[in-house]
């Protein structure tokens, strides 16, 4: 069966409606771009860069309220001390592999300087997950120009998923993983808001994997689909979850959203293993936060008691984004002959058709 998004397989998560593209780019002004590196010479590359660019690229001078949550901290996301201190996202977000955090960090600063965008300080946001089962990370494939290309490729509309960008070499629940995205539309006090999620999924164990509550990972066992590294499963890995919304929220409310990304993560079978970097960031574009303002100015925010629809939306969007990463990703071989096998969609559809709900 051709690789597909979850809904195109007839499997629906939750009760809320997705946005037009069922992607984080359904949040107005949020763009996504990828740079994918796949080659075998001179060393094996299965890696890349994914850029999330809010406010159509104006985030450098029109910041957004934001917050961060570490569900399990065996990973890295730069810039979080200032984000916590200020409550603001001031840069695009770049996702890549573990050995290229420094390269991407420097490239983001350079991109800002060369394009006249950079503020006085350089504390951009770069997140990583480890792709060393498939990618020769010690070859340091990613260069500054690759990050520039991902930023330049950022655009609205549909988002490529699976073996692309920062998700190129990632493995999820012992199947081939990668980039996935989804969105939900909610109504609060007569206003319509969109919430979107994008994940770089590189986490989880087979036996924990679920689809809409079905224990698919136990039904598609290791004899049916082997793991990438041999006979024994290796629990761990990491996930990066980025949440965006156009609802008018302040930093503390973004923190409430970021924490609740764990709901969707857990529904698919995420545990937060000791060696897992499960790092979540949420930002809200419902207020303009220009960096050149000196005088006080008014902001809007939802009453806390009105946020429940967003809490429901984040659980559904994160759950579906992880599943979209799995259904889009294709089997991939890499370094040392390791192979990450794709989730078999024929089996998935057949098993889900037999569920009693």
Structure description:
This protein is of the alpha+beta class and 357 residues long. The protein has one domain (16-338): L-amino peptidase D-ALA esterase/amidase (4-Layer Sandwich), CATH 3.60.70. Helices cover 23% and strands 27% of the residues. The chain has helices spanning 80-86, 101-114, 144-153, 216-219, 251-268, 308-328, 345-353; strands spanning 31-39, 45-53, 62-73, 88-89, 93-97, 125-129, 171-172, 175-176, 178-188, 191-203, 237-245, 277-290, 332-333, 339-340. It has a 6-stranded mixed β-sheet with strand order 4-3-12-11-10-9. Strands 1-2-5-6 form a 4-stranded mixed β-sheet. A hairpin with a 2-residue loop joins strand 9 and strand 10 (191-203). Helix 2 (101-114) crosses helix 3 and helix 5 crosses helix 6 (308-328). The radius of gyration is 19 Å and the shape is globular.
Architecture in CATH?
A: 4-Layer Sandwich
The side-by-side strand order for the widest beta sheet comes to 4-3-12-11-10-9
Main sheet specs: 6 strands, mixed
The CATH topology:
L-amino peptidase D-ALA esterase/amidase
- What's the CATH class, please? Alpha Beta
**Over the alpha carbons, how many angstroms does the gyration radius reach?**
19 Å
State the secondary-structure class. Answer: alpha+beta
Number of helices: 7
* Regions with little confidence, pLDDT below 50 for 5+ residues: none
Query: Can you tell me the CATH superfamily?
Result: L-amino peptidase D-ALA esterase/amidase
What is the average per-residue confidence, as pLDDT, rounded to a whole number?
95
Portion of residues in helices?
A: 10-25%
* Beta fraction: 25-35%
How far the N terminus sits from the C terminus, by CA atoms, comes to 24 Å
